[in-house]
């Protein structure tokens, strides 16, 4: 789980991208064994050109990107859920092969934590245990009651 690679903030609060820091973050993800990065951020919440830049920087590293936006502080919507079964199969296959799967949203806590917990649930962990495990690694993960409740409801729906 990571914030959007290379996303920084000026002292006036405006966001900008640092291509060098982006490359370092992506190289760090590759060093952990990640071959895939799921970007959960909506393009409109990032500085202009963020998606083309990360696509360009990640390509020589052999890091496959996929984009599946979830609205900030929210849970997956219909478009995400329609695409998820196919994506999930690819991520679970990678995890079964011992690879690391990287997840990115704007800060790296809410949406990334939500999907990390959901993947753990797919591997057989009960929702409460998946939430606790993700939060053990990043206490701010699954950042609100809506996200936590959604995971518990997904488990009940089975």
UniProtKB/TrEMBL annotation:
> Residue limits of the Tyrosine specific protein phosphatases domain?
92-149
Going by the entry's taxonomy, the superkingdom of the source organism is recorded as Bacteria
List the InterPro entries.
Prot-tyrosine_phosphatase-like, Tyr_Pase_dom
| Name under which the protein is recorded | Tyrosine specific protein phosphatases domain-containing protein
- Native source organism of the sequence: Sulfitobacter profundi
